[in-house]
C-alpha cells in the first residue's frame, strides 16, 4: 500500500480485506461516536459489545442508513442512562 493512512483507517482496510468485508461499509465516525457514548454513559466494556450487536444487525442485512440509525439510537440510549463512567481517571479522547 503506497498511500499513508491514519492507523485506524489502515487497520479497518486491512482487517476488512482479510475478513472479506467491503471497507467502504465501515462508517468509522458513526461507530466511534456510538462506542464513545456507550463507554461514557453505560460502561466501558459495553462499548465493544454494543458494536458487536450493531455488527449483527449489519450481518442480518441492514442497509448503511439503518446501521447509522442503529449507531445513533444506541448512542441516544446510552446518553439517556445519564451515567458518566470515567471513575478510573482515564482522560477522554477528543474525536
Question: What does this protein look like?
Answer:
The protein has 95 residues and is mainly alpha-helical. Helix content is 62%, strand content 0%. The chain contains four helices and no strands. It has helices at 7-19, 28-41, 46-59, 64-81. The protein is globular, with a radius of gyration of 14 Å. Residues 87-95 have low confidence and may be disordered.
Tell me the structural class.
Answer: mainly alpha
Unreliable spans are: 87-95
Indicate the mean pLDDT: 83
Give the strand tally.
Answer: 0
Ends apart, CA distance between termini: 26 Å
> Quaternary state, please?
single chain
What are its keywords?
95 residues; mainly alpha; 4 helices; 0% strand; disordered C terminus
Summarize the SSE layout with pairings.
Elements: H1 7-19, H2 28-41, H3 46-59, H4 64-81
Helix pairs in contact: 2-3, 2-4, 3-4
Question: In summary, what is this structure?
Answer:
Helix content is 62%, strand content 0%. The protein is mostly helical and 95 residues long.
Amino acid at each position: 500500500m503506497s498511500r499513508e493512512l491514519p492507523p485506524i483507517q489502515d487497520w479497518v482496510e486491512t482487517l476488512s480485506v482479510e475478513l472479506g468485508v467491503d471497507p467502504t461499509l465501515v462508517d468509522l465516525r458513526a461507530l466511534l461516536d456510538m462506542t464513545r457514548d456507550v463507554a461514557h454513559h453505560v460502561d466501558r466494556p459495553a462499548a465493544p459489545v454494543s458494536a458487536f450487536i450493531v455488527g449483527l444487525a449489519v450481518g442480518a442485512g441492514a442497509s448503511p442508513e439503518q446501521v447509522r440509525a442503529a449507531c445513533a439510537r444506541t448512542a441516544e440510549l446510552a446518553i439517556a442512562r445519564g451515567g458518566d463512567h470515567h471513575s478510573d481517571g482515564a482522560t477522554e479522547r477528543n474525536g
